[in-house]
């Protein structure tokens, strides 16, 4: 008798003995926070034949067992997981739960033909305009043609590292446009493609990018470790996309326009757009008194406020005169 097969949409914490047939839509290593050269966990986005996705994690004790046995874009039979809430800093799937491998987890490779597995679930651009502000920490896949670019800019990260970014304008088949920001090594890679003019449209496929609000406008950007990005890849989706584009021949250099670089993000922009609340000195003092009562001496309050500001969470405070 064939083993029972469960579906991703049915997974919940009521048992451990889940039996799945899934493709690995995305696989990446997450580094240790103490040593970036050391792998802390292996992260997977699993997708079943219905197209439903769930995130899975292989923690350090299981790395040696599974690291070389699981490959991206391959299909597997997987059984036995610990089911936890999907409440991380970023969510690769909208599923309420995620999976953790443990000592009894079993993985076996299956033929790629087991089911019609497509590792990409492209989000229409108009959905980003409509729902982007409420995406929170949920990540999505996109495909589009590069029709505009801004100048490369330098950037200093929260950890003090210097990097660079470039913002591209993407257009889909319905002529909706969005902006896409790439960071770090992706900048040099995309520039090399932009310098090539082979007469073909320049398509980008991005996987697990996050939505980002800037002055009431929503765009997408890469996320460290999680995302992946393909430039003019030889994928069936890209080949079909090019066939569906307008047949009028326009060279690549003529298709991509130079955009005006967006100004740096200013505090006054945040105030005018009502992105952060504005407080008077009296209100801040009252808030500080409440914090002292909750967490102790004033030096601890300052420490907590500094951490909140660095993380861009909690209350943003702009002080103005009483």
UniProtKB/TrEMBL annotation:
Gene3D superfamilies: Nucleic acid-binding proteins (2.40.50.140). Pfam families: DUF223. Signal peptide: none annotated. Transmembrane segments: none annotated. Residues 7-108 form the Replication protein A 70 kDa DNA-binding subunit B/D first OB fold domain. InterPro entries: NA-bd_OB-fold, RFA1B/D_OB_1st. This is Uncharacterized protein LOC107472637.
């Amino acid at each position: 008798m064939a083993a029972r097969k469960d579906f991703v949409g049915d997974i919940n914490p009521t048992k451990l003995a889940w039996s799945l047939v899934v493709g690995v839509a995305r696989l990446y290593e997450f580094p240790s926070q103490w040593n970036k050269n050391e792998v802390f966990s292996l992260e997977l986005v699993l997708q079943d034949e219905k197209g439903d996705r769930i995130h899975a994690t292989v923690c350090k004790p299981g790395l040696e067992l599974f690291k070389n046995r699981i490959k991206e874009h391959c299909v597997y039979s997987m059984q036995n997981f610990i089911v936890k809430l999907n409440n991380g800093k970023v969510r690769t799937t909208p599923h309420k739960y995620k999976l953790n491998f443990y000592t009894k987890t079993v993985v076996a490779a299956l033929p790629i033909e087991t089911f019609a597995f497509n590792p990409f679930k492209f989000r229409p651009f108009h959905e980003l305009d409509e729902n982007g502000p409420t995406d929170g920490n949920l990540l999505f896949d996109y495909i589009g043609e590069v029709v505009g670019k801004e100048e490369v800019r330098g950037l200093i990260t929260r950890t003090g590292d210097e990097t660079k970014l470039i913002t591209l304008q993407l257009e889909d088949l319905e002529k909706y446009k969005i902006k896409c920001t790439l960071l770090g090594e992706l900048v040099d890679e995309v520039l090399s493609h932009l310098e090539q003019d082979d007469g073909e449209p320049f398509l980008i496929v991005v996987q697990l990018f996050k939505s980002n609000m800037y002055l009431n406008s929503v765009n997408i950007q890469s996320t460290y470790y999680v995302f992946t990005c393909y430039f003019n890849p030889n994928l069936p989706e890209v080949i079909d996309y090019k066939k569906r584009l307008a047949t009028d021949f326009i060279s690549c250099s003529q298709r991509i326009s130079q955009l005006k670089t967006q100004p740096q993000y200013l505090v006054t922009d945040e105030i005018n757009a009502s992105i952060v609340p504005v407080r008077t000195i009296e209100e801040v003092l009252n808030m500080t008194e409440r914090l002292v009562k909750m967490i102790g001496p004033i030096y601890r309050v300052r420490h907590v406020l500094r951490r909140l500001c660095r993380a861009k969470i909690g209350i943003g405070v702009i002080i103005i005169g009483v």
